[in-house]
Amino acid sequence: MQLVRRFRLHALFCALAVLFCALISRPYASMGVCDDGPYILMAQHLARTGHVAYNGWASPMMLWQFYLGAAFVKLFAFGFTTVRMSTLLVAVVTAWLLERTLVLAGINEHNATLGTLAFVLSPLYLQLSVTYMNDIFGLLAVVICLYGCLRALQSAAARGEAGDPGVSRDRATIFWLSFAVVTNAVFGTARQIAWLGILVMVPSTLYLLGWHGLSAWQDGLRGRKSVLIAGAAATLAGAGFIVACMQWFKRQPYVIPEHFSIHGGGGVNVLATFFHASLELPFLLLPIVVLFLPELRRDVRRSVKVGSAAFLAYIVMLLILYVGHAMIRPVLEPAMRDWVTRRGVGPAYLDAGRPPVFLGRFARLVLTAASIGGLLGLIVSLARPRREAPGVGDRRPLPWRQLCILLGPFAVAYALILASPGSSAGGIPDRYLLELLAVALPPVVRLYQEQIRVRTPGVALLPVAVAATYGVVMVHNMFSLDRARVRLAAELHAQGVPDTAVDNGWEQNFVTEIRFSGHINDPRIQTPPRAYVPVPALGNGPCPGFWFSRTPHVHPSYAISFDANACYGPAPFTPVHYSRWLASSPGTLYVVRYVPPTRR
Question: Torsion-angle region of residue 554: left (phi > 0), alpha (psi -120 to 50) or beta?
């Protein structure tokens, strides 16, 4: 046990589990995945020139992410997969740190390991771990800030237990507060919303340290002036760093300005955002939420009351959204978009056709029932009388009231930003919920530990294994599809068809446009002036087309399609099959004509 504690083997196991599951899914493809194509090219440019240069597809700053990607390019030569492996490294570190954070939040090692595995082996986390999106990088900034804040509170409480003057404990508290600020400031340069750690989470910690009424958790939590002054100074310095970074970012050419507002006719869309997020959150944490299902049988009367109230609220919300003409998606899980989907290939953006359905209606019904049932069981367990929290090792856990003060304001601020009209127009992707899931994980796991069982049963590993299997399958199928797209594009290129004459989905079209013009033709670019050049729209034929105004150098004669009869029918090129794990048949991609044959 001393060996386990010394080398943090539980946390190491969680980190290695992410690495293993990611690598066995074969996550390689020489093309962009969703937004990461332009980001990868920016990392390549930084490695080649030593300068950060945006290319028209970046509202996140992504600074330290670019430097890490450029370091991988320097070490291992450029490749889409090479740069993406930098994200996998960050995902492995985040998994290790998350397990230690759960332990600091008052959860024993066994339950912390299970909770971490449920989060980091989920389909959402595994997919984002092997792309060059900024979600995992931003998540690290939030988790490491939370870790530092918990260590600061722990140091302050330990001062009261030690019985000494507490000078060394004060220094430790100041160190961990400064650690939280500095790391959140640096790692938050990948995704600005992660700076809510400095702006909200650290001030919440200072409030806890300075509030003299918190005698329930050791007298040592009563802060000293030196701690509060040093913590406030570090927070102000962090806020100054944020302002300086934003001013620098605003002056960079070819960036997409981000505007935040909480007003302006988006009330119904905000409700729709919260509605779908409330359905999606328990689904994305299903291996943990499903453990609360037995609570429905344990207290039938309370379960009926909670279920009836939830159903009534659900019907009222549907009516409000319907009257307000808000977008109402199918209520079966997955309820949101666009990474964990019923098609099982992540964000497959091809204009012509859609990939085959992977999760049938029955499977989605089961997932929906398990998600909603587990959520109701969680609510029922909240209504039961509170048990006294057991200690973890020789430490007393942070009381619930303080834990809510630490995490609650951050969650509210994060949710308000996501639900702002600028962010929630048309709904938000499920990947934006990653930080909320990480913040919700400690209370949910600890609630199970204190209200139901001190140690989760061995059968609890089964839903974790199922989720991990599905995540591995999704990652494999997504990259298998993208490798097929690359092979078809290479076949066309070998026949003399240039890349600018092929519609291979907007994410690959963006890469083509950047390689030909240096930047994406986005109307939101403000610097340099008149960077955006209006272009005529393509004809309104049977090919749908998407965002061609942003890729004026792409004039497709052919398109990659899931449907052989899409657009103007099949072109004389051999279809390509791609592997689909756990599917009844392999997938197939076709080349179709984008223009009528007479116009070729």
Answer: beta
